[in-house]
Design a protein that fits this description.
- The protein is built from one helix and 27 strands.
- The strands form seven sheets. The chain has a four-stranded antiparallel sheet with strand order 3-2-1-27, with no helix packed on it. A four-stranded antiparallel sheet has the order 4-5-6-7, with no helix packed on it. Strands 8-9-10-11 form a four-stranded antiparallel sheet.
- It is globular, with a radius of gyration of 19 Å.
Length: 361
């Protein structure tokens, strides 16, 4: 399989490949259309488009074949007895697509907070009704900007495809050990500082920006929360705050090393109404000791008058654990071949980037 990096932006999907030691754009797809999610498995690529008035669309390409439009996940009609449900029963956008650990199985997290499963490579989708029909779902809160609650993270245990974790903004971490037939909220130990004092420790009040787990040690899960970084050593049931991160604890993205349980990367920023890099400098924070200490990585990243913000899905690591990609809301794209010690930028000025994803085997 050829090495590929897929970059989803506000104005299309860009496919990059290495050429003589540099990453260059090899192809463009869906120019002019916003891309909200990407998954690349071998020679098969999925792209979700967020077309606003025209709705969310889902496309698949296999090898050199043309793109094929698939049926997008769909919610059932809203029943009369759900009139007090504060959330819509219609698809806003597909926020994340993940492999399900079995041939043909995919999971999609959406906004509003629906979880959908496909067992035929995306040809058809079923809403996970046990999660959607939970009474607690009506307590889920929207993310910033007035949007609906969304599932931004879906983690499948590589040892057991029925063991699932989903991260919701804003509703905490939810777990299923029976393939989605039943759910429970976990994530003890987090806190949400913008909630009233009596509610800030409630599991359902936690604003989960992004979850990442170590594939070789799936009990290790990292979380970039709205107001901090947390680490779990028991598959997300209990968390402890990582206070050593520099230069700030706020951010959206996290990447976990696929084999080393103590290594993870974050992209710190100034939080809430400002949402810009600290001091106008784009940096990546890396820990190699489970969060006890951090290196602030900046070699090759803009360090003067830089105001690039990195969204939840715009930091990615490949299967080697050495190559990372980083995309920003200003269209900046940087790639590292040495675990983040140094970064280089392809010769391209891209639209605002929402997702970066390496192709996986």
């Amino acid at each position: 399989m050829a090495e590929r990096l897929y970059v989803g932006t506000r104005k299309g999907l860009f496919e990059l490949a290495p050429d003589n030691g540099q990453w260059d754009i090899a192809a463009t797809h869906f120019l002019g259309d916003p891309v909200s999610a990407v998954l690349a498995q071998g020679d098969t690529v999925y792209a979700a488009l967020d077309l606003g008035h025209f709705g969310a669309k889902l496309w698949r390409r296999e090898g050199a074949e043309a793109w094929q439009e698939l049926a997008a996940p769909a919610f059932p009609p809203k029943p009369e007895d759900a009139a007090d449900d504060p959330h819509p029963w219609s698809l806003g956008k597909i926020w994340v697509i993940e492999p399900g650990g079995l041939p043909g199985r995919l999971w999609a997290g959406t906004m509003p907070g629906g979880l959908f499963r496909s067992d035929d490579g995306g040809e058809s989708w079923l809403l996970n009704e046990p999660l959607w029909f939970m009474p607690e779902r009506r307590q889920w809160q929207g993310v910033a900007g007035g949007e609906q609650p969304g599932i931004s993270s879906v983690l499948i245990d590589p040892r057991n495809p029925d063991d699932i974790r989903v991260g919701v903004s804003t509703a905490g971490v939810w777990a299923s050990t029976d393939g989605g037939a039943s759910w429970s909220i976990i994530n003890e130990g987090m806190y949400n500082e913008y909630m009233p004092p009596e509610q800030k420790g409630l599991p359902i009040a936690q604003d989960i920006h992004r979850l990442a787990r170590c594939a070789a040690h799936p009990e290790i899960v990292w979380c970039q929360h709205h107001n901090g970084v947390f680490r779990s050593e028991d598959r997300g049931h209990n968390w402890h705050e990582i206070t050593a991160i520099r230069p700030s604890k706020f951010g959206f993205a996290v990447a976990a090393h696929p084999r080393d349980p103590d290594t993870a990367w974050f992209v710190p920023a100034v939080k809430d109404e400002r949402r810009i890099p600290m001091d106008g400098k784009v940096v990546v924070a890396r820990t190699r000791d489970g969060g006890k200490s951090f290196d602030v990585l900046r070699n090759g990243l803009p360090q003067r008058y830089a105001y690039d913000l990195v969204w939840r899905h715009a930091l990615a690591i490949d299967a080697s654990g050495e190559r990372l990609a980083l995309g920003s809301t200003s269209g900046g794209l940087w790639i590292s071949e040495d675990c983040g010690d140094s970064w280089s930028a392809p010769e391209a000025r891209l639209p605002p980037i929402s997702v970066v994803r390496f192709a996986s085997n």
